[in-house]
């Protein structure tokens, strides 16, 4: 027979206690309660689920808080004479909130129960010190660092001002907002019309020549350049504030 509690799910191999419908959820109280038999500790069940997540979650290098949701106090399970086992359903992955199964396979009344476990993982992230207008080149004076639960940051987060050239805001950013990758773009370090050194290599042979940038470019971006000697337009990757690597 199986049942659900308001705070968790459980199934047992056998129970004789009556079940009733509570707020649309089947609620069963196990025979352990009515017979006076010892029941399993809720804290032991929660600790088993929390320890399972603690050793497997993807934020091992960060400060974390792991909390299993409390079971309904009316949930009664036979005391397990052996070690409790935690597990995930097939195909499940550990996320901010994960449903963990805990089971007892020893004794005369095997059982299993499911309960949600939440992970909070804290890291220092960049937040706006004041409102930032679109198109602003973001400097150290525009940001501060704050500790945040990154598991709740679905759009990611930034922890530095980036490589040379930094970032430029794509949109308005409110004071105190966590800076995310979709809010910014890399600032240009090469400007249209600027003279740049064009570098080309083919195996052991390297050639350098002067050119003119035909577009603005951020570090690592692809731009069009003109070879001053031949007048040809070529494509290359910005490698510094005055050089472009040709394909």
Automatic annotation (TrEMBL):
Major subcellular location class: periplasm
Keyword Hydrolase carried by entry: no
Subcellular location: Periplasm
Transferase as UniProt keyword: no
Stored InterPro entries: Flagellar_FlgA (IPR039246), FlgA_N (IPR041231), SAF (IPR013974), SAF_FlgA (IPR017585)
Residue span, SAF domain: 123-185
Keyword terms of this UniProt record: Bacterial flagellum biogenesis, Cell projection, Cilium, Flagellum, Periplasm, Signal
Segment forming the signal sequence: 1-36
Family, per entry: Belongs to the FlgA family.
Annotated function: Involved in the assembly process of the P-ring formation. It may associate with FlgF on the rod constituting a structure essential for the P-ring assembly or may act as a modulator protein for the P-ring assembly.
Protein name, UniProt field: Flagella basal body P-ring formation protein FlgA
Source organism per UniProt: Zhongshania guokunii
Gene encoding the protein: flgA
């Amino acid at each position: 027979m199986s049942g659900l509690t308001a705070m968790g799910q459980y199934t047992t191999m056998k129970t004789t206690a009556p079940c009733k419908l509570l707020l649309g959820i089947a609620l069963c109280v196990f025979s352990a309660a009515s017979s006076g038999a010892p029941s399993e500790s809720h804290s032991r069940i929660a600790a088993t689920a929390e320890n399972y997540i603690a050793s497997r979650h993807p934020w091992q290098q960060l400060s974390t808080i792991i909390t299993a949701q409390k079971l309904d106090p009316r949930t009664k399970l036979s005391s397990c004479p052996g070690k409790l086992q935690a597990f995930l359903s097939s195909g499940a992955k550990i996320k901010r909130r994960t449903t963990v199964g805990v089971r007892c396979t020893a004794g005369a009344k095997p059982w299993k129960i499911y309960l949600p476990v939440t992970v909070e993982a804290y890291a220092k992230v960049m937040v706006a010190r004041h409102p930032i207008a679109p198109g602003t080149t973001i400097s150290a004076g525009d940001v501060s660092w704050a500790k945040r639960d990154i598991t709740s940051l679905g759009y990611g987060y930034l922890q530095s001002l980036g490589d040379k050239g930094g970032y430029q805001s794509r949109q308005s950013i409110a004071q105190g907002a966590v800076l995310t990758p979709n809010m910014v773009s890399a600032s240009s370090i090469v400007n249209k019309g600027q003279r740049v050194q064009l570098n080309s290599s083919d195996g052991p042979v390297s050639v350098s020549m002067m050119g003119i940038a035909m577009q603005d470019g951020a570090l690592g971006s692809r731009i069009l350049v003109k070879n001053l000697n031949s007048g040809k337009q070529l494509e290359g990757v910005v490698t510094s504030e005055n050089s472009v690597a040709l394909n």
